Amino acid sequence: MEYDVIVVGLGTAGVEAFRTSVECGLRTLGIERLNGMGGVGTVGCISFGGDIPKLLHDYEKAAEKGEVAYESAVIGVQRKGNRIACVTYVTNGVVREASAKIVIDASGNATIGALAKLPLRRGCDFDGTMAPCSRAESWMNAGGGIRPIYRNYQEDTSADSLDALSATAAKLTRGRHQFWCQNRAKQRMLRPSPAVGAREEPRYVTERIQTLAEVLAETPVEDPIFYAWTPEDLPVTDRAVAFESEAIQNWKFLCDLPMFGYPSTISYRTLVVKGIANLLCPSKHFGVAHDLGGGLRMQGEMRKAGKAAALAAKLAIEKGVAVKDVPYAELKPFLEKARTLRSPLKTIVTSYHGYAFTPYDDAQVVEELRRDVTRTPEWWFAKSENAPCERSAYAYWTAWKRGMDGKGRPLADALEREMSAGGRFAANYTIALGLMKDARCVPVLRRLVAEPGCEIDPVIEKAIPNRFKAIALLGRFKDEKSVAPLVEIVKDDARGFTRDIAGCRAYESADLYRFQALSYALMALRSILAAHPDAKVTAELEAWRTRPLVIKGYDGFDLAARLKKVCFTKKGKG
Question: What is the secondary structure of 153-209 as a DSSP string?
Answer without folding.
Answer: --EE-SS-HHHHHHHHHHHHHHHHHHHHHHHTTTSEEEEE--EETSS---EE-BS--
